[in-house]
Amino acid sequence: MQDTSLRALTARFRARFGAEPRLFSAPGRVNLIGEHTDYNDGFVLPMAIDSRTYVAAAARSDRRFRVHSEEMNELIDFDLDAPPHARRGLWGDYVEGTARSLDKRNMPVSGADLWIRSDIPPGAGLSSSAALEVAVGYALVRLRDPSEPDRRKLALAAQAAEHEYVGTLCGIMDQFIVALATRDHALSIDCRSLETRPIPLRLGSLRIVICDTTVRHALATSEYNARRAECQKGVTVLSRLDPNIRSLRDVSEELLNRGEPLLQRETFRRCRHVVREIERTVSAVSALESGNFNAFGELMRASHASLRDDYEVSCRELDVAVETAASVPGVFGARMTGGGFGGSAIALVEEASIPFLLERLELHSRKEFGIVPKFLTVSQPSNGVCEHALED
Ligand code: ADP
Ligand code: MG
After folding, report:
1. Measured at the alpha carbon of residue 132, what is the angle toward residues 126 and 135, in degrees to the nearest 5?
2. Is-contact 69 91, C-beta < 8 A?
3. Are 55 and 135 in contact (CB under 8 A)?
4. Is there a contact between 162 and 176 (Cβ–Cβ < 8 Å)?
5. Is 382 touching ligand 1 by the criterion CB < 6 Å?
6. Average pLDDT, stretch 334-338?
7. Given 3.40.50.720, 3.30.70.890, 3.40.50.1820, 3.20.20.80, which CATH number is that of 206-378?
8. Does the pLDDT value for residue 193 go beyond 60?
9. In a 3-state reduction of DSSP, which class is residue 192?
10. pLDDT (tens digit, 9 = 90+) per residue, 340-350?
11. Residue 391 has what pLDDT?
12. Is the pLDDT assigned to residue 65 strictly greater than 80?
């Protein structure tokens, strides 16, 4: 967002709330590789993107909150000393949930007035929800205490807000990358130990194109739960071969093959995706560290094929986007990203090839589905949640 529109944001805050705000923001994110590995104790490799959620915020002397979202064109309010609102299935749940979650986890907050504006499209798989939680959480903690907060603790409180107040049982990836991202780096997250490692990502003349298919299939939640259950079933059976196995993270391909006769065909394929995807994510880190984008692109292709054939969480719109991208010269690799059943695909591509790539993606999507996809081009990983210094 331009500096002038940030100033406009604070001007609107002043006009509405009659106080001088401070300004905070948190990024959206895209997962480069490591899909459906998080709840199997594996690795993920997300990066922050330039689209951000901004929060203008001023502390109050009481424990009340007034929160306006420009996207929702709505003002909500709540009082931390009053009993929590019942879950309403509305955007305010994310904000109230974050405030209460922080307070409960020993990161005390005071009341505040907040004005929110975002350029992250919601529901596109770019994690507008974690950006909202983490931006609000960071603002609230910093309003109360000027020192830099523990970002991991903040991310965990935001995740808990989504579990407890919103009712989405998300993994830790979204809140971690949004809170911990550093510019020009992707973040390798070990979802078992919660160790993180920034991985330098120098794209040079390459770009990451995000293609939002704009479709969201109703199956997403039920199938997500079904996949989690399949993985658990696999662990139960495979632990007969090795009692030390606690999750698919502990399963090698060799052990999986030994277990094949014991597993139902479908369970075997689900487990094979996870075991190989964890391997691929580890290899992807090495590929990025050595600047080997050919190898990285290959891993993206393999990841997509595995999500499509073994894990069966892709859909026609994502497959067509990925196949179309793969046929464009200058594309190193493409895959669906996020949980699947709609949402976005990503392609790693030479900048010069982008106009042709977008043209082809739009053409094929229009022709097959009558849908115009939305595009976002990322030239470098962005930084995590931060405060902005606003000069007058
Ligand atoms: P994603 O995180 O992939 O964008 P989710 O369904 O997890 O999708 O989160 C989207 C929800 O987050 C929205 O429906 C809305 O409730 C909330 N949200 C995101 N951004 C904003 C915003 N700028 N203002 C208010 N609510 C928002
Ligand atoms: Mg979300």
Report:
1. 115
2. yes
3. yes
4. no
5. no
6. 96
7. 3.30.70.890
8. yes
9. coil
10. 999 999 999 99
11. 67
12. yes
Ligand 1 atom showing the smallest separation from residue 117 Cα = 23
* Separation CA 180–CA 186 (nearest Å): 10
**For 61-76, what is the mean pLDDT?**
97
Kindly report the backbone phi and psi dihedral angles of residue 137, in degrees, each rounded to the nearest multiple of 5, phi listed first: -60, -45
| pLDDT per residue as tens digits for the range 139-172 | 999 999 989 999 999 999 999 999 998 888 888 9
Residue intervals of the chain classified under CATH 3.30.70.890 are 206-378
Q: What are the structure tokens assigned to 18, written together?
A: 């009659």
Atom 6 of ligand 1, residue of closest alpha carbon: 123
Cα dihedral 274/280/282/286 (nearest 10): -170
Ligand with an atom nearest the CA of residue 28 = 1
Active site residue 174: yes
Q: What's domain 3-201+383-388's architecture?
A: 2-Layer Sandwich (3.30)
68 vs 221 pLDDT, higher one = 68
- Residue-averaged pLDDT of the chain: 95
Instruction: Spell out which residues have Cβ within 5 A of ligand 2, the ion.
Output: 127, 129
How far apart CA 154 and CA 158 sit, in angstroms, is 6
Task: Write down the pTM of the prediction.
Answer: 0.95
Atom of ligand 1 nearest to the CA of 170: 7
Distance 245 CA to ligand 1 centre (A): 36
CA distance linking residue 309 with residue 296, whole number of Å? 20
Cite the residue boundaries of each domain of the chain with CATH code 3.30.230.10. Answer: 3-201+383-388
For ligand 1, the distance from its centroid to the CA atom of residue 94, given in whole angstroms, is: 8
